[in-house]
Structure formats: C-alpha cells, structure tokens
Design goal:
51% of the residues lie in helices and 14% in strands. By secondary structure, it is α+β, with helices and mostly antiparallel strands.
Length: 548
C-alpha cells in the first residue's frame, strides 16, 4: 500500500477506498441468484450497471446528496406560496441515473401492464446495487414504480399517465406532469392520529363534478416534489384512494401546502414532509370505500423494495468490512486471516447470501404470479415475511460491519455510518414488524389453501436440510394456536429462515446446508461469529462474497 509522509509520521496500514469496483461481478451470490431466478440473459447489462454504480463518481454523488440535505421553500420573497423543496445537484444526478436505468418503470410495459419475463428480478438487481451507493433517492423511484399497480384501478387515467411515467427521462422541473419528459409519483397515507391505522384517517374528500376536493393533512409524505401522489381520504362512501397532482388541470398549483420537513435519523437525502391539503384537486382511483384494497397494490410492491434495499445495505456493509479486513494488519496478520474475525465475517457472509437468495426468489414470485397460482400464493404470504426478516436484520448487521472497521467505520467520512442511520427506516416504512406479522396471519386466514401449498413447496425444497422438518412442524403448530398473534414473531421469523434456506438450496446447496445447520437445527447466536465453521467453509463463504 502506498505510504504518505507527514511532518510527524508516515500513514500506512489503512485500507484503500472500496470504490471503482464492479458491484455486480464482485457479488457472486447476487449473480447466481439473478441467474437462478430467470435473469441470466441480462448479465452483460448488469455488469455494466454494476461498474457504473461502483465508481468513485457515484459514491461522491451519494455523499454529497446526504451532506447537503433538502431545503423547504414555503414562500417566495414577496410572500406568495412556493411549496417547493430544493435538492443538491447530486440528488438530481442520482435520480437521473436511476431513471435512465428504468428502476422506476421497467416492470411495466408502455400500457402500464406487467412487462413479464424476469423484469422484477432484473429491476430488483439494479435496485439492490443502487441501494449500496445511495438509498434516499430510491424512495421516489420505488413509489413511482409501485404507483402503476394502483393506477390499474383506472385504466383511462393510467393510459394518460404512462406516456410520461413510462419515459426513462428524469425531469425535475416544477411543472404540470402532462407537460414533462418524465414524472415521479409518491403516496400519502399516514396522519397524526392514525399512523398504521389508516381507517382512522380524518382527511375529507368532497365530490366536485368528475373530480374531488380534498381537505386535511398527512403527517409523513415523502418525496414532496413528486408530480402526483396517491392519497387516502374519507369520501361519502368511506376511505378512498385518490390521484392528487401537484398542478390542477388549469395549470395552477394545487392546494398542497408543506408545513415543514422531517428532521430524520437517516434517509437524509430524501425529503419527508408534513403537508396540509387545502381544497386540493384530486381524481378518484377505484370505488369509494375501497381505498385500502386499491392502494395495497402499490404497498405490496414498495414492501418488496424495502426488503431488497435492506439486503443491499447489508451487502454493502459486508463488502466494506471484508475489503478492510483484507488490507488491515493486526499482530502481523491481516484481519481477514485472524480466526475469530474470519468467523464473524463468514457468518455475516452466510446471512447476506441467504438474504440475497430469498429477496430474488420473492421477486421471481412477483414475475410469475399472474400466470401461476403457487407463485401468487408465495408472493402473498412471503412478502411480509421477507420484509419482516430482512428489514429488521439490517441495523444490527450494519453495526457489526461498522465494528469490523473500528473507529474508521464510526466516522461520517465513511459510508457505513450513513448506512447505519439508514438501516432502520425500511422496517418502519410500509408497515412495521408487528404489522408484517399480522399481515401473515391475515393471509393464512383468508387464503388457507394457498398458504398450505406454499408450506408444502418449502417442505419439498428443504428436504434433508438440518432442522428443516422440525421448523415446519413448529411453524404449523404455532400458527394454528387460538392465540397465534401472541407468538406470531416466533413463527414468522422461522418461516423466513425456512424460505431463505429453500431459496439458497436452489442456488448453492452447500451453503444452504450450512445456513440450515446454524439457523434451523439450532438457534443462531444473538451476535455474528457465534458459529463453528471449518476453515474451508469460512474460506468458501468469503471467496464467494468478494473474490480476491
């Protein structure tokens, strides 16, 4: 390693930046998971994408977008309302790069129908890679992609929107959506008094000809410079979903008034607002009183992205930790050659490999659900399961990665401090852990045959893996209890581990057996590294994680 001479000492034994790397080809578990789930034909495109997003220039954009946070401009100098949020140029550059790659729309065709093939898997791979560089800008990206699912409730409106939303241009101008090259969409559900309980919403919608006028508020509405939002409000027939553009049809600014931006722990590049609607123009999506079933088509897709981003954050943490350990010497040996550190890193690598396999397997279910009942049932049951496990795993995992770097991991100049602050949000967004567990119970109650088919499928896939059959028996017994809600977290976590073992079994059986032995056959320790891997097993895990 190059040494730098200062007045008092030479600088050496520091790991070089983990930049100008290929975030796809250096990630063997991701490459194999994409191929196993239908995406092998896109290897060349993903290789180019991984090289671009792994560049020092993209890392710099991520840093700048988070150090220079959004600013709300409520009024102009003469007292007129502006209700605009200003972002650093680096944020807009990140948005443009993601839009150019189609991360906001590539799972839909020009008509707003599912694109088919392996479009979900391929888009998720790009989302996974981008999340390792900068996660905040992906909030409007994921909401835009997911909004199309809800727009299917109004084919006529969808037909008007798709020529703009389906474009791979990013247009940050503050102008009516129909006049722009490209557009983004957000959502507004949460109110002060309700939170998760959106049925408690008090925002009102009153019919105005073919449209509605909405008055009320939202306590959290992220990405406020989106061109339109899907909003829940109480109409005469009950809670209803609405399409609310930033501009009314006559070109005037709609009555969307931002009160302030949230001062958040992480996700700093992305603005999250408190907003009031003052007689705001909106169009109804779906029937009155059917707001939750309408918008849940969007929420299911954003939950998938929460899981994918969380695994991406863990992958980045692991890659930085292993990269550092291979360059940092302690007691005359590289950290990566120290037996205890090797156990920690290998255990972390196994967790990420299984999580990656599971995330991509879930995306395959989204791809195939329209034509396959089993895949549709897998998607319905496993989406909350995968979100629960991956999103709640991320904060502790990223902390462990940060500790591998010591003090260098704790300072804000490095990316891991940002990842650590970022990591809790995905477990909170789109339904907290308890909400995910309740959703699993709801799926079991409403679609018992489909859930049973999924469990039988997992049983077949994990046949012979250590502890798998015992895990299945425990899951079934626990979920059949009259008071299943009380112990739902036990069953849901174990179901996630079983599904991860099954997904990994399709890709790399040797590591599926290791995963089952350390997670299903016996409870995994509360901290990483509390495992007994043979030296060859640890070496194999780390070599797949980041080839030397």
């Amino acid at each position: 390693m190059a040494q730098t001479s200062l007045a008092t000492h030479d600088v050496f034994n520091q790991s070089p930046p983990f930049e100008d790397v290929n975030l796809f080809t250096l990630d063997r578990p991701l490459m194999d998971a994409v191929a196993a789930n239908g995406g092998a034909s896109a290897t060349a495109d993903l290789t180019e994408f991984g090289k671009h997003w792994g560049s020092a220039a993209m890392a710099q954009r991520g840093r700048l977008a988070n150090e220079n946070t959004p600013k709300l401009k409520t009024f102009d100098a003469r007292g007129f309302r502006r209700d605009e949020v200003e972002f650093h140029p680096a944020y807009h550059e990140l948005m443009a790069h993601s839009a150019h790659a189609g991360i906001h729309n590539s799972t839909w065709n020009a008509n707003g129908e599912t694109a088919g093939g392996a479009s979900e898997v391929l888009r998720a791979a790009r989302f996974f890679i981008a999340s390792q560089v900068e996660t905040g800008h992906l909030c409007p990206i994921t909401m835009t992609r997911a909004a199309v699912g809800a727009l299917s409730s109004d084919p006529a409106l969808r037909a008007k929107v798709m020529p703009v939303l389906g474009n791979r241009s990013y247009d940050p101008s503050f102008a009516p959506w129909w006049s722009k090259r490209g557009m983004t969409m957000g959502m507004g559900m949460t109110e002060k008094q309700g939170g998760t309980d959106v049925r408690a919403n008090i925002t009102r919608a009153v019919r105005d000809g073919d449209a509605y006028r909405i008055t009320g508020h939202k306590w959290f509405m992220s990405a406020p410079m989106c061109d339109a939002f899907l909003v829940l409000a109480q109409a005469e027939g009950g809670l209803t979903c609405f399409f609310m553009p930033r501009f009314a049809p006559d070109g005037s600014v709609n009555g969307i008034h931002f009160q302030r931006l949230k001062d958040k722990l992480g996700n700093r590049s992305n603005a999250s607002s408190e907003v009031e609607f003052n007689d705001a123009y909106a169009l109804r999506l779906g029937e009155e009183g059917r707001g939750i079933p309408t918008i849940i088509q969007m929420v299911s897709l954003t939950r998938q992205d929460c899981a994918t981003a969380s695994v991406g954050l863990m992958r980045s943490g692991l890659a930085h930790a292993l990269h550092h350990a291979r360059h940092r010497s302690v007691f005359q040996k590289h950290l990566s050659d120290q037996p205890l550190m090797k156990s920690v890193l290998a255990d972390m690598a196994l967790h990420v490999e299984a999580s990656t396999a599971l995330a991509m397997r879930l995306c395959r279910a989204f791809d195939r659900a329209p034509a396959d009942k089993l895949e549709a049932a897998y998607m319905r049951l496993l989406t909350p399961v995968v979100k629960y496990w991956t999103c709640k795993s991320a904060p502790g995992f990223v902390y462990e990665a940060m500790e591998c770097l010591g003090g260098n991991g704790y300072v804000e100049e490095g990316i891991l401090a940002r990842h650590y602050r970022e990591s809790p949000v995905n477990a909170i967004w789109e339904g907290s852990g308890n909400v995910m567990c309740l959703d699993v119970l709801r799926a079991l109650a409403r679609e018992p045959e489909g859930a049973s088919d999924v469990l039988r499928h997992l049983v077949a896939q994990t046949q012979g893996l250590p502890g798998a059959q015992e895990a299945v028996s425990f899951i079934i017994k626990t979920l059949r209890q009259p008071d299943a809600e009380r112990v739902a977290r036990l069953a849901v976590e174990l179901l996630a581990l079983l599904a991860a073992a099954a997904a990994l079994q399709e890709i790399y059986p040797k590591h599926a057996e290791l995963f089952a032995a350390t997670r299903l056959k016996q409870p995994h320790g509360s901290l990483y590294g509390a495992v007994d891997f043979a030296a060859t097993e640890a070496r194999g895990l780390l070599e797949r994680t980041l080839p030397e």
